[in-house]
Amino acid sequence: EVHPEYMPETNRSIIRGSLFPHIRYNAKMPREKTHRKNVTLQKVEGAKTAFESGILFHCYIDEVREQFLEDENFFEKMKEVIDIPEEEQVLFLKLVEDEILFSKLDRAPITHTLLSLDKEEEKYKISKEVLFQWHSLLVISMNQSPSSMLSELAAAGKDFLTLPAKRVKWWAPRLLQAAQSPLFQDHVNRMVEHFTKEFGDYIAAIDDR
After folding, report:
1. Is 0.85 topped by the overall pTM?
2. Core vs surface per residue 139-150: b (16+ CB within 10 A) or e
């Protein structure tokens, strides 16, 4: 195990890149500016820079996850345990997944990495103010579970990303309830198994080259 302070810069850039695409919310950028389509692990491996590799990995995870959700017909299953508007389902599910995985994540090296900007972030013509705001938000998210963060925002009457304060207040108690339900717990376990197989198959294919 490498102490966060001594993590190679390549690894840091991959981490920053993998977290970068959602800056579009803060920077008010269209999704296509930070997200690529039809990404494979081969493209991730062949990226020109470590930061770009991280971005591509994020996009790969998004696409595989979306296909997994479609195959599982999961949004229909969600309706069995929570009545939430269709336009809010995607964000709600992502936060529930993050809530379930929060305690299992080794957050220290990620937090340490986010204390500084990546030189490639500035190529996107985003102001340093917005970049630092984004990194600060990510550091907070690494040290506070989604349910805890939403509870604080609800108490303060604040918005969250595209969610107005009134809906944040409605979400706050229901997010933790959903994360504790067998349906969502099983979903996350199955999704992790799915990705584990994806990565394992790719590594095996590399070994056979």
Report:
1. yes
2. bebbeebbbebb
